[in-house]
Amino acid sequence: MRLVALLLSLFAGPAFAEGPTIRSLQTGDQGRGWEAVGRIELGERGFCTGSLIADDLVLTAAHCLFDKETGERLDPGTFRFLAGWRNGRAEAYRSIVRAMAHPAYSYAPGEDLTNVGSDLALLRLDQPIRLPQVVPFLPDWTPAMGAEVGIVSYAKDRSEAPSLQEVCGIMAQRTNLMVLTCAVEFGASGAPVFAMRDGQVRIVSVVSAKAQVEGQAVALAVPLMEPLAELREALEAESPRATPGVRVLSGSGGGAKFLKVAP
Question: Which domains does the chain have, with CATH numbers?
Fold first, then answer.
């Protein structure tokens, strides 16, 4: 994950108080409903966070596919997706047979905001995950500025279990970039950003980078639906499945819920 410094004047928006403490989902009860979020092991190059949006597709950040020192593409054959990884075990273990970054994405290390809007990647699993407790999440349109969202991620110093930040906000928004008051750390790249829609938890964005706005820790995230549609089309064109299209399952069966934190 990259660290980017931003000028607040570029992103005028509502002020938010510091978000609530990030809560570790250490136990089975705490992690119930979030099993479709997993850790992506990048060979010997660390890890990112990803989430199932179909039984054989994982959504993450495009920059996770690149060596941060050389800029070279990593071999997806060395990747593994650990669905619901927690305390040494996963709900399912899968290898990756195809990894595709958004067609408009061009890896550029450092403080570069030009790629945030296309910082998406899809990983195709070697076998679908069809377990009743691992329910893929449904992508949805990004909420309006000021809306509350949450993030589930793995990160540095909390890599053995996912953590949930339940309530943070969209403090600024452009067509190709969002600034969130969520606190993220290295390893949270590709983490799903969630919002409640019609009583269901849905993915509305993906974490691209950690950043600072006048000393306040924030996260940069990708507005989702249009670039995701472009990415899916590119993936299907290059490696079509036997059954056309991508089957997306609702997250309602997983039971994931945000808990409102009392003031």
Answer: 2-249 (2.40.10.10)
pLDDT at position 17, please? Answer: 44
In whole angstroms, what is the distance from residue 71 CA to residue 225 CA? 27
- Kindly report, residue by residue over 19-49, the tens digit of the pLDDT: 457 888 988 888 899 999 999 999 888 999 9
Task: Give the closest residue to 75 by CA, choosing from 104, 97, 56, 94.
Answer: 97
Q: What is the DSSP letter of 20?
A: P
Do residues 63 and 201 touch, judged by C-beta distance below 8 A? no
Long-range contacts of 105-110 (CB under 8 A, 24+ apart): 105/62, 105/63, 107/62, 107/63, 107/66, 107/71, 109/2, 109/68, 109/71, 110/2
Residue 125: CB atoms within 10 A of its CB come to: 23
For residue 192, the one-letter residue type is P
What's the CA gap between 105 and 63, in Å, rounded? 9
